[in-house]
């Protein structure tokens, strides 16, 4: 039994019953693939159900305000996925008359869709013989065939794609692709793979050479950047506050409290002396108190954010018009959402 047939046999006997495996609707498959980028299945499941319930068709998603889409996505991270999803839904409706593209070359034109996602949708929904290559596939192929080419290089990307395409069962690409992804996720795991019960263990190069932990190879990691955020949580006498929409960078178009970013941690005096603080409050009489004395880093893929939340009490002003009751309606980064959940106030919510 060849490599692909062994994987398919294992998959048919061990696959999980996931909702997107019970449909070939390209809209639903697309939703699941975008949600599961950088996200575990157990974490993404509820988001998939929420999107299907709130936006049952691509027309519904296209018609929704961006803030509604981002609010539904809140907590999932990598918010560019949601923005691209919404953008592409409007493109499908407005430019393609609401008809989802039906082949790889057209699917990959959608914003936020790369080779892997286009291959998955085209093979699962339209039986197009396009092999998927994601992190799970890289790991299975690198270990089984003993490939040392770094997977995050142009050479590695081409080499693994070519091999996956050669191995693909052209008659049933959908099952083949889902089989190798499932196998990588559950059997050939990054840590502690189940080699003893692996159906491929008798011919696996990495197991034979005892270098499972060394594969796949990845070139130098990006340096993690430390950032220091100082959020100004304004409280007025009338129980109003101020939030603003981010215009760039991480969390684009999400809402947050006014922010002062510094090169290093600062104390209360340094905060008050900061130019942005002066521009916001001028000569107004304000009181300042740090809410969170223990600062835990909020870890993103290539940056750690150390956030302080400063409670600024001030008299009433037309500049601070957001009621606390309305804050929960806005899409916010999980960092802000966690603060709001901790923040106890007599009038909050």
From TrEMBL:
Any one biological process term the GO annotation gives: mismatch repair
GO molecular function list: 4 iron, 4 sulfur cluster binding; 8-oxo-7,8-dihydroguanine DNA N-glycosylase activity; adenine/guanine mispair binding; metal ion binding; oxidized purine DNA binding; purine-specific mismatch base pair DNA N-glycosylase activity
Cofactor(s) listed: [4Fe-4S] cluster
UniProt KW Cell membrane keyword: no
E.C. number: 3.2.2.31
Domain HhH-GPD residue range list: 35-186
Keyword set, alphabetical order: 4Fe-4S, DNA damage, DNA repair, Glycosidase, Hydrolase, Iron, Iron-sulfur, Metal-binding
The organism's place on the tree of life at top rank: Bacteria
Record note on cofactor: Binds 1 [4Fe-4S] cluster.
Xref: SUPFAM superfamilies: DNA-glycosylase, Nudix
Reactions catalysed, as given in the entry: Hydrolyzes free adenine bases from 7,8-dihydro-8-oxoguanine:adenine mismatched double-stranded DNA, leaving an apurinic site
Catalytic class of the enzyme: hydrolase
Name of one Pfam family that matches: HhH-GPD
Family that this chain belongs to: Belongs to the Nth/MutY family.
Described purpose of this protein according to its UniProt entry: Adenine glycosylase active on G-A mispairs. MutY also corrects error-prone DNA synthesis past GO lesions which are due to the oxidatively damaged form of guanine: 7,8-dihydro-8-oxoguanine (8-oxo-dGTP).
The name this protein goes by in its record: Adenine DNA glycosylase
């Amino acid at each position: 039994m060849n490599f692909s047939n062994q994987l398919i046999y294992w998959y048919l006997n061990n696959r999980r019953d996931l909702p997107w495996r019970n449909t070939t609707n390209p809209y639903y498959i697309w939703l699941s693939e975008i949600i599961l980028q950088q996200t575990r299945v157990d974490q993404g499941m509820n988001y998939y159900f929420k999107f299907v319930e709130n936006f049952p068709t691509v027309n519904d998603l296209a018609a929704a305000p961006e803030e509604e889409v981002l609010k539904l996505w809140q907590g999932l991270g990598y918010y560019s996925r949601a923005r691209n999803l919404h953008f592409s839904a409007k493109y499908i409706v407005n430019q393609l008359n609401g008809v989802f593209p039906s082949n790889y070359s057209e699917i990959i034109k959608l914003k936020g869709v790369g080779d892997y996602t286009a291959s998955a949708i085209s093979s699962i929904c339209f039986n197009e013989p396009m092999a998927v290559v994601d992190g799970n596939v890289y790991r299975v192929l690198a270990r089984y065939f003993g490939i040392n080419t770094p997977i995050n290089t142009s050479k590695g990307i081409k080499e693994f794609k070519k091999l996956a395409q050669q191995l693909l069962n052209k008659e049933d690409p959908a099952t083949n692709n889902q089989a190798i992804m499932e196998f990588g996720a559950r059997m050939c795991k990054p840590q502690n793979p189940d080699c003893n019960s692996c159906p491929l263990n008798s011919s696996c190069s990495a197991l034979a050479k005892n270098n499972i932990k060394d594969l796949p190879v990845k070139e130098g990691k990006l340096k993690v950047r430390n950032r220091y955020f100082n959020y100004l949580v304004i409280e007025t006498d009338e129980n109003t506050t101020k939030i603003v929409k981010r215009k760039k960078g991480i969390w684009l178009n999400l809402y947050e409290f006014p922010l002062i970013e510094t090169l290093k941690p600062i104390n209360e005096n340094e905060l008050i002396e900061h130019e942005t603080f002066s521009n916001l409050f001028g000569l107004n009489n304000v009181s300042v108190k740090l809410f969170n004395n223990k600062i835990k880093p909020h870890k993103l893929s290539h940056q750690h954010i150390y956030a302080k939340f400063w409670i600024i009490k001030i008299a009433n002003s037309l500049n601070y018009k957001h009621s606390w009751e309305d804050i929960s309606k806005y899409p916010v980064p999980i960092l802000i959402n966690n603060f709001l959940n901790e923040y106890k106030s007599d009038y909050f919510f």
